[in-house]
Amino acid sequence: MSTVHLRMHGSVAELRLDNPDKLNAFTMPMLEALEAHCATIDRDAAITAVVLTAEKAKAFCAGADIVAWGALSPAEFARHWIRDGHRIFDRLARLSKPTIAAIGAHAFGGGLELAATCDLRVMAPRATLALPEAGVGIVPGWSGTQRLVRLLGEPTVKEMALFGRRIGAERAVACGFAVEVAEDADAAAFAIAEEAKRLSPRATEAAKYMIHAAVGEDRAAMIETLAGGMIAATDDRNEGVAAFREKRKPGFTGA
Ligand code: COA
Questions:
Q1: One domain, residues 57 and 152
Q2: Measuring from atom 47 of ligand 1, which residue has the nearest CA?
Q3: Residue nearest to atom 12 of ligand 1 (CA)
Q4: In whole angstroms, what is the distance from residue 166 CA to residue 29 CA?
Q5: Could you tell me if the CB of 14 is within 6 A of ligand 1?
Q6: Tens digits of per-residue pLDDT, 47-90?
Q7: Are residues 31 and 116 in the same domain?
Q8: Cα 149 to Cα 210: distance, rounded to the nearest angstrom
Q9: What's the predicted TM-score (pTM) here?
């Protein structure tokens, strides 16, 4: 059965797509597994970085499972496939840890949108990127026309979505979408993950939220998360909670 595995390599978590017979096409069980793993990763303070990989196949991920979504009614497709997919991909994009996608082979449609949720991307030389949805009569549904426009640029995304062109690894680096081209994309991504270990996890978490607020990635939640963390560390917050519990007026000091 198709799934996404969560494996630990010391303090680095690996999320590995496992549906190689279908070129790692993304299925509903994979979405559900990914959502559960994101919750586990966010709860584990010992995890320093996350690497997204895929079982070896011609594609890192050939997109959403065409047969599965093709069997859904329009309402099911919109509510459960597009909206649930969005929610779960957003969950990955907004993880508190630094994330790196190892694009070892082609990333098409939903596979490209999945890689776009990560903070950084490494690509193998022969890997290409594509948005082939129009070729099967639909449109990108997991932020290909939104988050991807920010990462690749409007003209490039139009080239892919409106003309069906594929983008190679060197060009993806030139666009800033990928940080590096590496024969062994998995090894290169894990090497980058090691670099995060030198840094303060709380500082990188706050930096990620600030950068997300700057680019409009869940801006409201990012700002309130940062402010919430700051205010929760004050004496006044403890005094406010204590006063409420003791049914008295709070004596705030500003500390
Ligand atoms: N959903 C479901 N199954 C998929 C899939 C997808 N997105 N992409 C590939 N597969 C399956 C194929 O049906 C085939 O299954 P089978 O062996 O049971 O027939 C298997 O994966 C291998 O794919 P195949 O097409 O035979 O490989 P290929 O090397 O000839 O072509 C691609 C590779 C990626 C060009 C081709 O598979 C393709 O165009 N896939 C769809 C890409 C796409 O449109 N993605 C957006 C989806 S919204």
A1: yes
A2: 63
A3: 22
A4: 28
A5: no
A6: 999 999 999 999 999 999 999 999 999 999 999 999 999 999 99
A7: yes
A8: 20
A9: 0.95
